[in-house]
Every structure is written in C-alpha cells, then in structure tokens.
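Intended use. Records like the one below are meant for learning the mapping from a protein sequence to its folded structure. Do not use them to infer anything beyond what is encoded.
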Amino acid sequence: MSHVVFLNSSRIGGGPLSVATTHAVQNPGALIFGPDGRVVDIDPTRLPPSDTKGPGRPRLGVTAREVTLLPRHWDWLAAQPGGASVALRKLVEAASRDPRAERHAARDAAYRFASAMGGDEAGFEEAMRALYAGKRKKFHRQLETWPPDVAAHLEKMAAPAFGSDDED
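Structure written out for the chain above:
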C-alpha cells in the first residue's frame, strides 16, 4: 500500500511519497498517511529534487542499532552460520512472514489511521473493538455513517486484519 493524502475527510491523492508530497504542498492543511497508518511529517522545502543523486555509493538500507541480549543468547548467535547478523536477519524474516504478523500490522495501521481521521466519529470505539476482536461485519457496520473516503480507506487498510474465519 502506498501513501495517501487527505484534506479534511476527503482523499485527494496518493502514491509514492514524492507524489503524495506534491498533493500535500498544493493543498495546505492536507495530511499524508504512510502505509503503516502514521501521519508522515515532511518539510517540502528540505526535499531534494527527485532526479538528482548524491555522491558516493547507493544506500543499502542497513541500519546499525544496539541489541541487548543475555550471554547465552550471544553464544548461540555466534555459533550460527554467518554469525549474529545473518542469524538475526533470518529470524526477523521468518517472523515477519508469519500470517499473524501481517494481521497484527494491518490492525495496528488501521487503528492509527482511524484514530487520526475518525476518532470523533460516531461508533469509533465500537469499530475499534470490532477490529481487534476480528468482527468484520460489525466493523463495517460501524463505519456506515463515517465520511465515505475515510471509511473506504479504513476498510482497505483493515482488510488484511480479518482472517477468513473471522465473523460476528
């Protein structure tokens, strides 16, 4: 899912961040939402032109951060083929492919978007309870009075949160 831009309760655009930024700059007061449901805070005056590349080699997207583990965990990681970094990447990849992880991520993203755009709407609390309880039909019923663009985007975001076995 790409970025989406809302002005008040109307969806005015979407796409990659550069496209969403253009929509937001042209419509003061617009909000850009990322695929994770969070509002994207941008400063359009600080964005580089999209056709220029900086000097040096391309970024690979690797981020170094601190990990705190017990000594026995470090021992286990050190004994893995490829070392700690390879073992941790494999564990993270396996966990991120778990269908439950996708459901949880979709549910949390939908909640963040709903809180920002529909927190004052009728049935907000009931809709969120239904979302987290896996009650698809009840969730959709609670959105019937919401602004159409907000409800439609929220339903799209929440769709992966409901399993085939979820019902009222």
